[in-house]
Specification:
The protein is α/β, with parallel strands linked by helices. It has 2 domains: 233 residues, 3-Layer(aba) Sandwich (Aldehyde Dehydrogenase, Chain A, domain 1); 144 residues, Aldehyde Dehydrogenase, Chain A, domain 2. Helices cover 42% and strands 19% of the residues. A 7-stranded parallel sheet has the order 10-9-11-8-7-12-13, with helices on both faces. Helix 1 packs across helix 8. The protein is globular and about 70 Å long.
Length: 422
């Protein structure tokens, strides 16, 4: 919808909310085949309008020329990322529809049947920064799970988000589903976020995706439930019984495959007994890739070009070519370090010892825990969810990458045949 001028933020956001609520009722009863057709149509439109999307993204990149490298990387669209958006939508269309699934149906002594039915959450507001692909990913997930979505992207990606939202509307229109099922907030006024946070009559869940400041503000101010993670302080621990070839491969990928993501490794932990061999191989490789190493006393002795780490480095989510490195005594000290400094996002161990791997899986309390794999796999697409609306480090409702099932809830259903309680 067009933004009214002059803009009354409260009236504008309330109108979006009312439209979203009405659209959510239509989406809740939409047939799976119709939703899948809409997703396929959106994917086709994105592919057909690739050049227009890249041009819109180019305007955002030009306007954001002064932004940091990590932020620009998250903002940029290229042909491969456009194709990935379309591919992700098709993958979501191919996934089973969770809506209407009935589980646990059983007879009670009274003769009634009691079970649970999976249902949409309703209206989901996504508040995000930088990455324009989020517009397509979360629209696909929310539509497939029978919800309506309100999309509030960052000002730095406004043109890109508008172009992608136009593709979403074209796909919805082709199937007769309500365009209001996916609405983009087209004002960059920060007051719009405040209105969304207070709109408990029309918004059922808020999902923030962005920097720690944004997520903290939303968590503190929201009057509706929030699905979130504050930061991604991800660890890789190289155990004394690790295969060092695997360890080097995993540790390099986890840090350098892409710096500006929440699932990139920020702290490397290495068992003392293998530290000389492991760091002797990894140090020069990180140095060649331009990664600054901030290490403990032993790390700095083994790698003279590492700089001493401060206490704050163990808590840091750099989102940049900087890595904290600590040599630990053993698995116990590695787990203690993760418990103290980690953010319960994603942590990995590299080991050939099954007992140690099981201990790590059991005792590290993060939303994703891995064995002999890069933390970069902590992603809805890689987990087979099609995409994700975000990653949750909370323990209630949804945890880890939030896909279709995480965008639904369950209600009890009771089936009787004239039964009455005695």
């Amino acid at each position: 919808m067009a933004v009214p001028q002059p803009l009354n933020i409260q009236a504008y956001i309330q109108d979006i909310g009312r439209r979203a609520r009405a659209a959510s009722w239509a989406m809740a009863r939409a047939a799976t085949a119709l939703k899948n057709t809409a997703l396929t149509s959106i994917a086709e439109t994105i592919e057909r309008k690739q050049q227009a999307l890249l041009e819109a993204n180019g305007r955002d990149l030009a306007a954001g020329a002064g932004l940091g490298a990590a932020l620009l990387d998250r903002l940029e669209l290229n042909p491969a990322r456009v194709r990935a958006m379309a591919s992700g939508l098709r993958e979501i269309a191919a996934l089973p529809d969770p809506v209407g699934e009935i589980t646990g149906l059983q007879y009670r002594p009274s003769g009634i049947q009691v079970g649970r039915m999976r249902v949409p959450l309703g209206v989901i507001a996504i508040i995000y920064e930088s990455r324009p692909n989020v517009t397509a990913d979360v629209a696909g997930l929310t539509l497939k799970s029978g919800n309506a979505v309100i999309l509030r992207g960052g000002s730095e990606a406004l043109h890109s988000n508008q172009a992608i939202a136009s593709c979403v509307h074209e796909g919805l229109a082709a199937t007769g589903l309500p365009l209001d099922a996916a609405q983009l907030v087209e004002t960059t006024d920060r007051a719009a976020v405040g209105e969304l946070l207070r709109m408990k009559d029309f918004v059922d869940v808020i999902v923030p995706r962005g920097g720690k400041g944004l997520v903290a503000r939303i968590s503190e101010e929201a009057r509706v439930p929030v699905i979130k993670h504050l930061d991604g302080v991800c660890h890789v621990y190289i155990d004394e019984r690790a295969d060092l070839d695997k360890a080097v491969t995993v540790a390099i990928n986890a840090k350098t495959q892409r710096y500006g993501t929440c699932n990139a490794m920020e702290t490397l932990l290495v068992a003392e007994s293998v530290a000389p061999a492991a760091l002797g191989r990894l140090g020069p490789m990180y140095r060649e890739k331009g990664v600054e190493l901030r290490g403990c006393r032993i790390t700095c002795r083994l790698l003279p070009y590492a700089v001493p780490a401060a206490e704050d480095d163990w808590y840091a989510e750099y989102l940049a070519p900087i890595l904290a490195v600590r040599v630990v005594r053993d698995l116990d000290q590695a787990i203690d370090h993760i418990r103290r400094y980690g953010s319960q996002h994603t942590d990995a161990i590299v080991t050939e010892d099954l007992t140690r791997a099981r201990r790590f899986l059991t005792e590290v309390d993060s939303s994703s825990v891995m064995v002999n794999a890069s933390t970069r796999f902590a992603d809805g697409y890689e987990y087979g969810l099609g995409a994700e609306v975000g990653i949750s480090t909370d323990k209630l409702h949804a945890r880890g990458p939030v896909g279709l099932e995480g965008l639904t809830s369950q209600k009890f259903i009771v089936i009787g045949d004239g039964h009455v309680r005695k």
